[in-house]
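Quick start: what a row looks like.
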Amino acid sequence: MRAAAWMPKPAGRRGAPVRRWLAGVVSLITVLSLTLPGICRAASSPLLPGHSNGAVVALQAALDDWGQNLPWTGYYGSDTTAAIAAVQRSAGLPPTGSLDARTMGYLGLAAGGPGMRLGTRGPDVQALQRALTRAGYGVQATGLVGPETESMILAFQRANHQDATGTIYLQAVEEVLSASGREGVVADAVDQLGDRYVWGGASPSGFDCSGLVAYAFGLAGLDLTHSTYSQWTEGTRVASGDLQPGDLVFFTTYASGPSHVGIYVGDGYFVHAADPQLGVTIDSLQSGYYFEHYVGAVDPFAPDARAA
């Protein structure tokens, strides 16, 4: 697992905002003025280098769909900037690494990307095919909208109450993904960075560890019990080398067995409601206290993983 390009305890949404722009980053006001109401969370939140929030998770997931293999850490660091530049090259845009309005459109995070239909080909089609696969409509990333991809587009449109025209914009898929499934869970958990710890809490006014998990999964439409020991049984076991964003990671802390839980975010890190001093924060699985007290992980998304 590669080294993370970010600090293990980012400032979070209550930290002081980063005010120094990287060279070439356009004015946020300009970007937002060119986006439409109702677009996915990544375009409607500040996306600045150094920030940690759910918007960055959606950005990183979109970059993943463009083949960048970027973990969903929720931190906008140098890896994310380099991935933006790589996508810009593949799309024939100036590779500035800056998240301008045109780049947002191509990534599927704002209006402006090309519509794709039967016969369309190119790297944007590969991104669409990867996004459809993440949404549960598996198709090979061939770069061509053939009959199979068209059928998946139509199925996706019908299932998500969109006009089933067979013509789709990447934005339409990324919007759905940013609010559901693994991406939605990680984004909603990361959005709580800095919230205070409250024993028995399960809302932004205060969380305990299992309360944060139940809250984030609930927003994504999955009901998990507000109990660490119960959550240990609400998924299939996952080996440490097979962790995916959104998997639950468990630790033995104040009691034997799985007495503490967090949500894996990628690159060896997890988000959790730690304690009254730290509140909701991000820590490493690769060293230190939580590495030493790790007991295992479960995947609540696996088919038939949860008890009736």
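That is the whole record. Residues 182-299 form a domain with the endopeptidase fold (from Nostoc punctiforme) fold (CATH 3.90.1720.10). The CA atoms of residues 239 and 297 lie 7 Å apart.
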